[in-house]
Recover the amino acids of this structure.
């Protein structure tokens, strides 16, 4: 087996988180293992945050807050659940959660792809700025709040006030939407949108959801400039 | 008749001309008044305090011979690389977007010339301000406009903004006419629309989450950078204790007089507590935790003179920040622009429409022609001059109190001119001896006992 193919295993039961993250950060400027496996994460916070290297990190177990926060280039896979703020401010690369995610998944993300195979809780995609988010299950209330750009695709249902105060992000939901937020409206699904849905599903490697089942939501753009007659909508 | 003109007309105290004009404006426009600057109402402030200076029992330092140091180190608690400042005055966060590119450059030039730091704002870090600021503090705000890990690592310190003195509990606002192509690109927004920044952070709620958020920021930056937490002065005692518990290296406390680029007038004038009242609350919170001077306190909101600097330090701050005063030093509200100000319905000395983007000085605008009027080198030099004057004034007062470092100033050096200022700042009313205060307290106690019996 070549050195490049070797898997570097770090046991968080014995290695401090600081040491793990420092070694991963050093890969931005120094050569090192390309494939990492983190065992015994035990819900630790800030695992594999701030990476900037073409590496793969697999986390065997549940991760705490801000897992893979502000990631660039790396692929981080969690074989478990994650807590608040997974892939917050994601810049590029991929973050894949095999279980479910707590609040604010992919918050303010500016690029890259976040896939949650279970459910994501409230505020999924809040203030998103270019990230693509695919959720296999449901998302909670106030998801895509003030979403600026990027795409959120939900294969299940969406909670109350989806897309509240949304800007230009595009939202696709296959299941039931339990209410739209201020200035968020349903929009026509045209061929280019269907292509976008297919592309997102393919990127997330989800093959058992029918692309035609998605409805599209976005901004009515009524709140882009303040008008007193819209005051009740704020 | 000319002789009694004005005396026959009685202006209402309750409905003075300003109040009447505002009611008429509201009825006409149907939107609250949005403006820049800070609170214009009178509240107890540093002007209500005086230094005692030296006397028979205290002796001063020689003004021109004996050293009075002004250096400050911020972020000694956890950061591997604390921020080392030559003077105790820093530049507060002001965004590119609210301010023009040349104005941001001038802030960097001026601050760097005298060895202090500048701060980004709600809009991200521009290459120009990084280049011209030797020490740059990078703000993490609820909107996260322009936030990225490269700038986080490029910064010299990180400031997590929870609140702002002008609007504790309020989000940001940048009106459509200031959203130029560049501002729009930095904020991932369409050009020309009103930009509403959130008032709550998107990925944390409450002090326990904040602690984890600070840990993430430290991990991303390998525990190199000091992490500040900025709060608008309101529940200052509790906010300070919670921020310390969350792991802050530095508390930045912005009083209600703190400036803003665009906020509802009702918010600026009616929310938050005065800087004077807030400082002792923060100092008390730090002292109780044994963290005073371990976690540094930076105070802003109405710092205009070296006397204000010295008084804030005497009350227990480690440094102060300026925003409005820095812009004025750079040319804001200057008399040479009076004609332009009048064309906008204002006048030099009164201009506060920083939200409008039509600033004739080229400071609070994104209009390329207006911004080109502003000379960043001249602006930077004026700011450096002003910062030097603030420092010299603070040193003058400190020497007079016999202090070899401005940090040695203490509440004991101060007295208050008014009962309000005395109670807020927790220093005695000028001329009131402790014995007299004790006697008054005894009399009140007797009266209270009589009433309750």
């Amino acid at each position: 087996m070549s050195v490049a193919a070797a898997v570097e295993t770090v046991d968080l039961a014995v290695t401090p988180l600081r040491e793990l993250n420092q070694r991963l950060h050093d890969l931005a400027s120094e050569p090192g293992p390309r494939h990492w496996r983190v065992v015994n994460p035990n819900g630790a916070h800030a695992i594999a945050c701030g990476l900037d290297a073409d590496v793969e990190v697999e986390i065997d177990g549940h991760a705490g807050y801000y897992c893979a926060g502000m990631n660039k280039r790396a692929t981080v896979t969690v074989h478990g659940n994650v807590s608040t703020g997974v892939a917050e401010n994601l810049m590029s690369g991929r973050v894949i959660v095999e279980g479910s995610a707590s609040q604010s998944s992919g918050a303010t993300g500016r690029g890259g792809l976040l896939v949650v195979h279970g459910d994501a809780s409230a505020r999924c995609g809040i203030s998103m700025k270019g990230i693509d988010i695919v959720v296999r299950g449901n998302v909670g209330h106030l998801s895509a709040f003030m979403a600026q750009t990027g795409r959120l695709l939900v294969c299940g249902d969406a909670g109350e006030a989806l897309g509240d105060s949304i800007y230009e992000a595009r939202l696709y939901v296959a299941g039931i939407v339990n209410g739209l937020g201020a200035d968020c409206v349903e929009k026509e699904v045209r061929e280019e949108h269907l292509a976008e849905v297919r592309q997102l599903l393919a990127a997330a490697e989800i093959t058992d959801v029918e692309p035609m089942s998605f409805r599209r939501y976005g901004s009515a753009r009524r709140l882009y400039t303040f008008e007193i007659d819209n005051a009740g909508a704020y | 008749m000319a002789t009694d003109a004005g005396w026959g007309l009685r202006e209402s105290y309750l409905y003075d001309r300003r109040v009447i004009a505002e009611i008429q404006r509201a009825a006409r426009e149907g939107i609250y008044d949005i403006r820049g600057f800070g609170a214009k109402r009178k509240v107890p402030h540093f002007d209500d305090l005086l230094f005692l200076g030296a006397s028979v029992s205290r002796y001063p330092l020689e003004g021109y011979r004996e050293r009075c140091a002004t250096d400050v180190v911020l972020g000694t608690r956890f950061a591997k690389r604390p921020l080392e400042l030559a003077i105790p005055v820093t530049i507060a966060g002001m965004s590119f977007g609210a301010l023009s590119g040349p104005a941001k450059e001038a802030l960097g030039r001026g601050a760097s010339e005298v060895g202090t730091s500048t701060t980004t704002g709600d809009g991200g870090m521009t290459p120009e301000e990084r280049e011209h600021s030797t020490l740059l503090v990078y703000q993490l705000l609820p909107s996260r406009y322009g936030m990225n890990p490269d700038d986080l690592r490029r910064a010299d310190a990180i400031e997590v903004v929870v609140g702002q003195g002008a609007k504790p509990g309020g989000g940001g606002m940048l009106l459509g006419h200031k959203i130029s192509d560049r501002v729009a690109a930095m904020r991932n927004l369409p050009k020309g629309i009103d930009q509403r920044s959130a008032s709550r952070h998107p990925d944390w709620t409450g002090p326990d989450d904040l602690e984890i958020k600070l840990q993430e920021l430290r991990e991303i930056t390998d525990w190199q950078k000091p992490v500040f937490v900025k709060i608008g002065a309101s529940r200052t005692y509790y906010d300070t204790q919670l921020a310390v518990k969350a792991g802050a290296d530095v508390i930045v406390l912005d009083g209600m007089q703190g400036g803003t680029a665009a906020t509802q007038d009702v918010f600026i004038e009616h929310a938050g507590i005065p800087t004077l009242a807030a400082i002792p609350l923060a100092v008390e919170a730090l002292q109780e935790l044994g963290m005073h001077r371990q976690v540094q306190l930076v105070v802003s909101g109405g710092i205009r003179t070296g006397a204000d600097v010295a008084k804030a330090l005497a009350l227990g701050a480690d440094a102060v920040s300026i925003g409005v005063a820095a812009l004025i030093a750079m040319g804001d509200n200057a008399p040479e622009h009076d004609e332009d100000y009048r064309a906008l319905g204002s006048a030099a000395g009164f201009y506060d429409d920083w939200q409008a983007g039509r600033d004739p000085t080229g400071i609070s605008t994104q209009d390329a022609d207006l911004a080109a009027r502003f000379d960043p080198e001249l602006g930077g030099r004026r700011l450096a001059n002003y910062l030097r004057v603030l420092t010299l004034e603070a040193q003058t007062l400190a020497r007079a109190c016999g202090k070899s470092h401005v940090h040695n100033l203490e509440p004991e050096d101060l007295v208050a001119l008014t009962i309000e200022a005395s109670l807020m700042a927790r220093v005695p009313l000028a001329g009131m001896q402790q014995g007299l205060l004790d006697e008054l307290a005894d009399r009140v106690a007797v009266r209270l006992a009589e009433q309750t019996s």
